[in-house]
Write a structure and sequence with these properties.
- By secondary structure, this protein is of the alpha+beta class.
- 22% of the residues lie in helices and 32% in strands.
- The protein contains 7 helices and 16 strands.
- The strands form 2 sheets. Strands 1, 2, 3, 4, 5, 6, 7, 8, 9 and 10 form a 10-stranded antiparallel beta sheet that branches. Strands 11-16-15-14-12-13 form a 6-stranded antiparallel beta sheet.
- Strand 4 (48-54) and strand 5 form a beta hairpin.
- The relative contact order is 0.13.
Length: 287
């Protein structure tokens, strides 16, 4: 699944403010807005309804070639020419993982989408995000990974040491769902203190976790993808990265990750939710 990048000319839209009382996912979207847009002139792509947003809000309307008259109750928004990521509505759930596999950075402050109702009644919807190419940004496709079979066996050993995936039927169920259906997160199964595996668990602040990792230099890491697509891309992979580089860039491709080294005597877990003790950064050590 690749991110489609296209070059577009300036897009000018005349339209009405978004009506928040109307469900934009409703099948009658076009029937609701079209009668309110009949006075717009010089329309391009008349079969489409444009939704355009920026920091000042959202309008629903028609794309025009130029502005000669603005009907009462209508407003104008313009997006400059440039490069855009084009995503079908069905791809939105994979958007963050798709961007992470490129050198493109998304401009979040503005964008637009188009809706077109086909003759068979189906609605085709695309979203356009302005982007900028950056050669220095992390592209997950270029991060070095260990050899596939070694990665898989190392990951299995890592999980067997630091995670409880078999002490009860519930944990077996959660782990099986995690590895077969890409649902849930591994950190839910991390071991606690006072267990027969000799693992000590410590909560850390973000600064403490970063200081600990920076002392390690090069580390091994894998993470949870933002979507099933992202999870599939990292499955059975273990990456090797400089700790400083990882800490500066991981927010581009994950919010939860598992960091360790080949000794398998420690791991630091970054998770987006607090554990029972109120920590989002966890250190597990073998004693």
């Amino acid at each position: 699944m690749r991110l489609e990048i296209c070059k577009l000319d300036e897009v000018i839209v005349i339209g009405v403010p978004e009506d928040l009382n109307f469900d934009s996912h409703d099948d009658d979207y076009a029937q609701f807005y079209n009668p309110r847009l009949t006075g717009i002139e010089h329309v391009l792509e008349p079969e489409k309804i444009f939704e355009m947003w920026d920091s000042d809000g959202t309008i629903i309307g028609k794309r025009v070639s130029h502005i000669e008259h603005i009907p009462d109750g209508c407003y104008v928004k313009t997006i400059p020419a440039g490069e855009f990521a084009k995503l079908h509505k069905s791809q939105l759930q994979y958007e963050l993982d798709m961007f992470a596999r490129t050198n493109y950075i998304e401009e979040m402050s503005y964008g637009f989408s188009t809706k077109e109702t086909k003759k068979n009644g189906d609605t085709q919807e695309f979203f356009y995000r302005p982007v900028q190419y950056s050669p220095d940004v992390v592209n997950t496709r270029t991060i070095p990974s260990l050899e596939k079979d070694f990665s898989k066996s190392l990951k299995e050993r890592y999980i067997s040491i630091f995670y409880d995936v078999e002490s009860c039927s519930f944990r077996r169920f959660v782990y099986n769902r995690y590895i077969t259906q890409y649902q849930g997160c591994l950190w839910d199964l991390a071991r606690f203190n006072n267990n027969d595996k000799g693992i000590v668990r410590e909560g850390m602040s973000e600064n403490e976790a970063e200081t600990f990792l920076l002392e390690k230099g090069e580390v091994l890491v894998f993470w949870e993808g933002f979507s099933t697509f992202g999870k599939e891309m990292i499955r059975d992979k273990v990456m090797k990265m400089d700790a400083k580089y990882l800490l500066e860039n991981y927010g581009r491709f994950t919010i939860d990750m598992y960091i360790f080294d080949e000794t398998l005597t420690w791991t630091v877990i970054f998770q987006p939710e607090e554990d029972e003790d109120g920590f989002e950064h966890i250190l597990l050590r073998v004693v």
